[in-house]
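Before the break, one more example. Copy the sequence into your notebook; we will annotate it together after we see the structure.
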Amino acid sequence: MARKSTSKETARKPNMREAILAAAEELFATNGFNAVSVRDIAQAAGANPGSVTYHFKTKDGLLLEIYRRHCGPMNLRRSELLAAAKRVRDLQDRLEAIVRAYVVPAFTSGSDLAGGGARFTRLRAVMSAEGNEVARKIIAQTFDDTSHAFIDAIHESLPHIPRTDIVWRSHFLLGALYYSLVTPDRVSRLSRGEADGSDPANAIEQLVQATVAAFQAPALDQAAPARRRTVASSKT
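Here is what the structure looks like once it is written out:
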């Protein structure tokens, strides 16, 4: 006859699940997905490997749950802000509102359960760079729909810019966003203390204004002839 779980054991299970998630997130963010084993995660969480498989089945399932719990709230907030931004009539103001709708939740949703925070941002950067197929599928599943919505909204505001150029510039925005969140001390250091890289309001404003200017730059096929003329004139 199976033994019934005591109330003490039942209360412990959610805590163990959270401990496993926290340990896995820290290890993945530090060492990457490929280098971390289920045993490593269990040891860091003070659990046994069977607990990891009980709660998450596989290491892949654990990574998926980390992304879901972080990114659900952030994607929801981004979608809400995007819907409001698209109602702005002036195209210049609309573009800025769209960019702000993408950037702000990454900073203001800074808690570990709202898609922001340095640790999860670092994990996302590591997963993107690692080239792991499982991580790539999870990232696509988690972010692609929201990313397409923002790219389409920007293209509607800048119809003269090819969508492929907007995709590239959105890609650069994501890299700048990662770097701003993970290494704010670099801004403070390179500015010799004149700028506070850890000030989220200033970081948001700098990133929004720089990104708006980048999106409004001439399309690559329009800018190329001007660059060629500049190079030719410098040689004469």
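Residues 1-12, 110-115 have pLDDT under 50 and may be disordered. The chain is about 80% helix and 0% strand. Try to locate both features in your own notes.
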